[in-house]
Design goal:
CATH class of the largest domain: Mainly Beta
Helix content: 10-25%
Number of domains: 2
Number of helices: 5
Structural class: alpha+beta
Shape: elongated
Length: about 300
């Protein structure tokens, strides 16, 4: 009501739009008010939908779970039922870049930066707000404790509720306790550092815990993660893991490993383009097979050995 009053004060027409904010992607055959539990605003002049509830979404960006849902739009003298457009790949992007250093005593330090736009950008702002609310030091302690690797961090980010530009960035510097077993040859995955958003594909492709015969919400989007680790002096790696490509009619995922001197880098990228908001049947089966392969790629590890001159 406040949003629409402010729009009216500027001479911009808007009408209420009823939607279900939960997991309902179909309207029932029988008319019932229980089909809707949330209200958006529609601006006919701009053909634009806005949701004032998130509080930190750029204007016209909806929560990702609202795209592709049926809605009821108030029109004179009655109402009409339509479907919201799907989120597009280009309007839903994120990138994580982490550069880390493993020292001669096994401690790790580094920097992580996440940049996101669209619904991913709104989610990143919400997570930044949770860091503010919990206190950065306390949040970092809890985060690394959940990973089973005690550490601390400091953060650099703009106030998430200010300047709601399309792109939002969140950075953090971290220091982790020594893991001498890595120096002794224990295999480990590349260090993600401070991961604020989901890994490439894990959310976009729908729930990976469901059987592939079960339908699940799914979303178009583009994600990149680039993780680099500088090896300590006197250490080399046993073997550089092989990359992987997974591709079908709806997605393309690729991971690449490279080495530049003592710096080991893995880059993973996924592009998803889906024609539906709920994946079922053949689409669901293809995505379920793809996410299984992608999750297998996540388990790629490196192991250190003494450097032989």
């Amino acid at each position: 009501m406040l949003l629409e009053a402010l729009l009216k004060a500027k001479g911009i027409a808007s009408v209420p739009v009823l939607i279900d904010s939960g997991n309902r992607y179909r309207t029932p055959e029988t008319a019932t008010p229980a089909a809707f539990n949330h209200v958006l605003s529609y601006l006919p002049e701009f053909d634009l939908y806005a949701d004032s509830t998130p509080g930190m979404a750029p204007f016209g960006i909806l929560p990702v779970t609202e795209y592709g849902k049926p809605v009821a739009i108030e029109t004179e003298p009655g109402a009409s039922v339509t479907t919201l457009p799907l989120v597009t790949t280009e309007d839903n992007e994120s990138k994580l870049q982490t550069t880390a250093q493993l020292t001669a005593d096994g401690t790790v330090s580094g920097q992580s930066t996440t940049v996101a736009s669209g619904p991913f950008g709104t989610k990143l702002r919400q997570l930044a707000a949770s860091v503010e609310a919990g206190g950065p030091a306390r949040w970092a302690e809890s985060y690394f404790k959940s990973l089973g690797w005690p550490g601390k961090a400091s953060f650099q980010f703009d106030p998430p509720r200010d300047r709601l530009t399309p792109i939002y960035a969140f950075s953090g510097s971290f220091e982790l306790e020594a893991r001498p077993e890595f120096l002794a040859g224990k295999a480990f995955e590349p260090l993600a550092g401070i991961r604020m958003l989901v890994r490439p594909g894990e959310f976009l492709l729908g729930s990976w815990t469901l059987a592939k015969t079960e339908p699940t919400p799914c979303f178009s989007g583009h994600q990149i993660e680039e993780l680099s680790l500088t090896l300590p002096p006197g250490r080399d790696i046993e073997l550089l893991p092989a990359g992987k490509t997974v591709e079908n009619s709806y997605l393309r995922f690729r991971s690449d490993w490279s080495r530049d001197g003592r710096v080991i880098t893995v880059r993973r990228e996924i592009t998803v383009r889906l024609p539906v908001a709920v994946c079922r049947d053949e689409i669901r089966a293809q995505l379920a097979e793809a996410i299984a392969e992608i999750r297998g790629d996540y388990r790629s590890e490196i192991a250190l050995k003494p450097l032989v001159h």
